[in-house]
């Protein structure tokens, strides 16, 4: 089992092998994160690169207070926000509207492929919060730091995104007959 | 399957199937490899030079230090036996029309204009401990 904290410590000392290992652990996850947020391959490429550069440069600043993945996605999100600012695109694309809380409804019990298709139909910001919470398994406190929002907002975002996902799955199931 | 597992698996499959461009690896690690391609041989060369220098220094420490300026002068560097009086040697050299310079920091003397036969004679008399040509 690779100890990511140890890798970061080695990267801080400019250990190239550690950086290479770290790259292979995170390249798909980071690329996916950017690709799904921005829905643009070139931008995803550039931002993934930039994130790795920052990880390499700033590894020494990792204090080990959170999960390594929280730190990585914190950097990734900052990179993304800067990119959007540069392109004069609204950060609203990453901000969620808090209204319209949806009831939890019945649990998701469909097959993986259906859930996957439903995730595709979510808005980027909804996908982002579910990705961080369910795929990266970041604690809500860490997600709050990554997204720079209060803990309560994280909870409601996850709740709303999940509720919407369920609704989409239900609709898709009805369509299937 | 639990809800959270289902969502995680859906993301996993999505990530697996999203092709990550090779250019990413080439640009990030390829750059590093190019960096290594330049710096590893240079580093090896520098290390080799340093080792060579170290060995040379060790050799000199074992032997004696002969200054370059002295080496260029015509003659023979020698180390005299400890119990020899320099006056005795000077007399010998004077007889043969030779002069002597030294000692160097390493304790060697330069016998200016000395030839092989002069050195042999000094050796025969037991004046010289070591000769550097």
Q: Number of DSSP helices of chain A?
A: 8
**Major beta-sheet overview of chain A:** none
Instruction: Quote the distance from N terminus to C terminus of chain A.
Output: 45 Å
* Tally of alpha and pi helices of chain B: 5
- Low-confidence spans of chain A: pLDDT under 50, at least 5 residues? 91-105
Q: Taking Cα atoms only, what radius of gyration of chain B do you get, to the nearest Å?
A: 35 Å
What structural class should be given to the helix and strand makeup of chain A? mainly alpha
Order of helices and strands of chain A: HHHHHHHH
- Binned, the helix content of chain B reads 55-70%
* Shape designation of chain B: rod-shaped
Low-confidence stretches of chain B: none
User: What is the name of the CATH architecture of the largest domain in chain B?
Assistant: 2-Layer Sandwich
User: What is the CATH domain class of the largest domain in chain A?
Assistant: Mainly Alpha
Which value, in Å, is the CA radius of gyration of chain A? 17 Å
Number of domains of chain B: 2
The CATH topology of the largest domain in chain A turns out to be Rna Polymerase Sigma Factor, Chain: A
Order of helices and strands of chain B: HHHEHEEHE
Could you give a short account of the major beta sheet of chain B? 4 strands, antiparallel
């Amino acid at each position: 089992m690779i100890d990511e904290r140890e890798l970061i410590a080695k990267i801080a000392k400019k250990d190239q092998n550690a950086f290479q290992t770290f790259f292979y652990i995170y390249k798909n996850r980071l690329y996916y994160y950017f690709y799904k947020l921005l829905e643009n391959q070139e931008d995803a490429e550039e931002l993934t690169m930039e994130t790795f550069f920052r990880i390499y440069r700033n590894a020494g600043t990792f204090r080990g207070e959170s999960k390594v993945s929280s730190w990585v996605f914190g950097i990734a999100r900052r990179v993304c926000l800067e990119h959007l600012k540069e392109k004069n695109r609204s950060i609203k694309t990453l901000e969620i509207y808090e209204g319209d809380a949806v009831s939890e409804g019945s649990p998701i019990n469909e097959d993986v492929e259906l859930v996957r298709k439903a995730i595709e139909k979510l808005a980027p910001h909804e996908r982002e919060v579910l990705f961080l919470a369910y795929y990266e398994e970041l604690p809500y406190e860490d997600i709050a730091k990554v997204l720079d929002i209060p803990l309560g907002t994280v909870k409601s975002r996850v709740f709303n995104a999940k509720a919407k996902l369920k609704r989409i799955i239900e609709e898709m199931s009805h369509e299937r007959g | 399957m639990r809800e959270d597992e289902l969502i995680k698996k859906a993301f996993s499959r999505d990530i697996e199937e999203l092709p990550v461009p090779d250019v990413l690896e080439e640009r990030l690690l390829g750059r590093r490899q190019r960096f290594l391609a330049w710096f590893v041989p240079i580093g090896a060369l520098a290390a080799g030079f340093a080792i060579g220098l170290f060995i040379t220094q060790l050799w000199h420490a074992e032997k004696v230090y002969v200054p370059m300026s002295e080496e260029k002068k015509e003659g023979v560097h020698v180390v005299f036996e400890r119990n020899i009086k320099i006056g005795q040697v000077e007399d010998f050299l004077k007889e043969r029309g030779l002069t002597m310079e030294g000692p160097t920091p390493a304790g060697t003397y330069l016998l200016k204009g000395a030839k092989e036969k002069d050195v042999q004679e000094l050796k025969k008399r037991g004046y010289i401990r070591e000769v550097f040509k």
